[in-house]
Specification:
single chain, about 375 residues, alpha/beta, Enolase-like, domain 1, TIM Barrel, 7-stranded parallel beta sheet, 14 helices, about 40% helix, about 20% strand, globular, binds [(2S)-5-oxo-2,5-dihydrofuran-2-yl]acetic acid, binds magnesium ion, aromatic hydrocarbons catabolism, Mandel_Rmase/mucon_lact_enz_CS, chloromuconate cycloisomerase activity, Enolase-like_C_sf
């Protein structure tokens, strides 16, 4: 039983190491919505809600997330006692529709506090870690083919990553296809290269583009169509040998059921923000397991807190396509006292109660909006 006493929110702006170009936005900075949930006994749980490019990626902005928490969610749950995350999510869902990013930050903070009280890691609360290390790919998205090739070769030589995702969809179809195949050829046969179209194509463009990308050796095609188009995404997954990865199309438990029961084959990018938290996202994973759909640990390009929360969830399930939990590496600085350790194509799950990390309050204040 945990009583939530108070919740505080910060908007934290951290510059990226280079512009990160997606089909809908180019990021030079990432805004993290960070929350501290103080519970009985003075235990603090921490959570993060992060999106990409303001309102260009999803329906919640950093400012909107903060407002949803401060105006609606915090008054709803502060002063109440919860037995666990199920009771917490039922209370939030009964009075607040949607707003899964905001709810994810709160569920994360609750799990962190509960883990600290019980003296166990968040992964234990979620079913128990199967592994303390998870694979992590890197996204090449400078917007320039040669720069992406150089960056990929450098990371391969350093041994930090051995798998890459490319962001396409902003350019002309043929230019995007040429860009992806040039990078695949430069990085070599042994290196897995995937693309994320972020909803930029219609069905005609998708059929043409995917045919060429498949012939060029691309391993996985992420979200080629608009998120609402489940019918054609299912058709693409059945038409091509190269698998489709559903991302924006599979946010809620209801999306997961619709895709699975509609005959989708391929993989899903799980994200704690889309589903409403590290416990909620595992419900989608179980639908996938029942339907024979593969899994992938996805990021909203969160900072370290959101990344660690996701890693605790991913550590409890099998991920056939690994993870993309590199968010902290895209940012110039961190708000943790000790950064996550990324080596040899993977990241290590921190040990210790709760999330297993500590906030550097000076850094938090330094990067916070006043
Ligand atoms: C997305 O759509 O997958 C994940 C990695 C990356 O570079 O962008 C995100 C968003
Ligand atoms: Mg994606």
């Amino acid at each position: 039983m945990l009583n939530i006493e108070s919740i505080r929110c910060w908007l934290v702006d951290i510059p990226t190491i280079r512009p990160h170009k997606l089909s809908m936005a180019t990021m030079g900075c990432q805004t993290l919505t960070i929350i501290e949930m103080v519970c009985n006994g003075g235990i603090s749980g921490w959570g993060e809600a992060t999106t990409i490019g303001g309102l260009s990626y999803g329906p919640e902005s950093p400012e909107g997330i903060r407002s949803a928490i401060e105006t609606y969610l915090a008054p709803l749950i502060c002063g109440k006692t919860f037995s666990g995350v199920e009771a917490l999510s039922r209370t939030m869902n009964a009075s607040v529709k949607g707003n899964t990013f905001a709810k994810s930050a709160l569920e994360t903070a609750f799990l962190d506090a509960q883990g600290k009280v019980l003296g166990v890691p968040v992964s234990t609360l979620l079913g128990g870690a199967l592994s303390q290390r998870l694979p992590v790919l890197w996204t090449l998205a400078s917007g320039n083919t040669q720069q992406d090739i150089d960056e990929g070769k450098r990371l391969l030589a350093e041994g930090r990553h051995n798998t890459f995702k490319l962001k396409i969809g902003a350019g002309q179809l043929q230019d995007d296809v040429r860009h992806a195949i040039a990078i695949k050829q430069a990085l070599g046969e042994q290196v897995s290269v995937r693309v994320d179209v972020n909803q930029a194509w219609d069905m005609t463009a998708a059929v043409k583009g995917i045919r060429e990308l498949q012939a060029g050796g691309i391993d996985l095609i992420e979200q080629p169509l608009p998120l609402w188009n489940h019918r054609d995404l299912i058709a693409l997954s059945q038409r091509f040998d190269v698998p489709m990865l559903a991302d924006e199309s599979v946010a809620t438990l209801q999306d997961s059921y619709a895709l699975a029961s509609g005959g989708f084959t391929g993989a899903w990018a799980l994200k704690i923000a889309k589903a409403g938290g590290p416990a909620q996202v595992l419900k989608l994973a179980h639908v996938a397991q029942g339907a024979g759909i593969s899994l992938y640990g996805g990021t909203m390009l969160e900072g370290s807190l959101g990344t660690v929360a996701s890693l605790h969830a991913w550590s409890t399930i099998g991920l056939q396509w690994g993870t993309e939990m590199f968010g902290p590496l895209l940012l110039k600085d961190d708000i943790l006292t000790s950064p996550l350790v990324f080596t040899d194509g993977g990241v290590t799950l921190p040990e210790g109660p709760g999330l297993g990390v500590e906030i550097d309050r000076d850094k938090l204040n330094h990067y916070s909006r006043q």
